[in-house]
Structure prediction request, 468 residues.
Amino acid sequence: MSAKKKEENTKIKKNKNTAKTPVIDDTKKIVKKSGSKTNKYDLLRGMHDILPADEKYWKSIYNTTTSLAEHFLYGRIETPVVELSNLFIRSVGKGTDIVDKEMYLFEDNDGKKVCLRPEATASIARAYINHGLWNKPQPIKLWYWGPMFRHDRPQAGRYRQFFHAGFENLGAIDPSVDAEMILLAYNILFKNGIETIVHVNSIGTPEERERYRADLVTYLRSKRSYLCDDCKTRINKNTLRVLDCKQEQCQPVIEEAPQILDWLGEISKKHFMTVLEYLDELGVPYMLKPNLVRGLDYYNGLVFEFYGQVGEEGAQSALGGGGRYDYLIESMGGQPTPAIGFSLGVERVVNAMKKKEESGEKIIKEKLPDVYFAHLGVDARRVLLRIINEFYGSGIKISFNFFKESLKSQLESANKHKVPYVLILGQKEVQDGTVIVRDMESGEQEIIDQKKIVKFLAKKVEMINKVD
Ligand code: AMP
Prediction:
């Protein structure tokens, strides 16, 4: 193609682009679309958006989770959001609320019965078998972060889509692993400003539990008339869950119920007591909760749940929970593999952090911008976007607003946020290839070559940070 033709082509393309680009009227700041009066597309019940205002909390929890995972040598696993529904029906178990009432079930286009995952442990056990992870040196240490789905009755802190941050340790049975799990969850919460107390219990081996269950059934039948309707059906269907009931009327019956700890054999007892010794050593506050059973079928041995401050221990306030599931992988067709895991409800952790901040406690220290980029005129804006891009990766935190037009209001904005330096770009600086750097404390100004500006400000910012 000749040079002339090429030029013409570019012109045509440019014209096409111009025609398609939404017009931004310089004098009117941003062209806004007219908003509709009613929103035809409301959120589904129990679903929620996560907006930038909450980003600092999510980021902080995520960063703690990843850095702890790295420190304690856990590798990330991602499993699909959609799985065969049988995976959860068989592992979490019929008779549990998750399976009986809360599954997002549907048939996919091939007629397969699938569901949106209500939790990730069963998927991870499946992945452990599918990928032959049992062939690798044990234990396999994994962590995950992602959305879970439960079609529950929405209420405060209870959503139909919510995030779990979780850890799983597969292939080792030792009290140190149990303690490590509790420590990880405790650390994530503690490092994000939430003081917690972990509720612990042991639900023993399946045989120990079965013997206990038989006695519990006898006891509960004798108290049947005092129980709520749900618990009446739970007596036969999911006996241990009666102990977990939050209904006022069931509490006296639960308090008097036989306790599973009395049914544990020597090995289970020793394991549990040793975990507690580890927690003493680690300084993790715990509380023995003989009625804590967790609602899922696959658990055995140690079970635990994290709660906020005393007084916030309602049904919705568990920040996370977990336990051993030494029989799950074998029951799914794998080798006998001891395992343990936990998950934290990220939304609930975020809510707990916000609550603390509302009460005046500063949990997250946000870094303020080092430099505010001010500009005057359309040409300056074009050059400024290039300069902003050049600052990417410099470690300097910047702030700017293309839609504040007067220099005065831009400087006011910088002042309001106590930004130490302002970079000013007007028509003259665009022509000269320079920028003005204003020290906001002293009011001194320097003219700097645009090509040297990143290095120049990096030195200034480094000096401020050293003094801080
Ligand atoms: P679970 O294994 O069911 O105890 O879930 C672990 C944690 O996830 C809980 O302690 C809660 O913090 C959180 N969680 C469970 N269900 C929900 C839900 N429906 N909405 C929000 N968070 C939840």
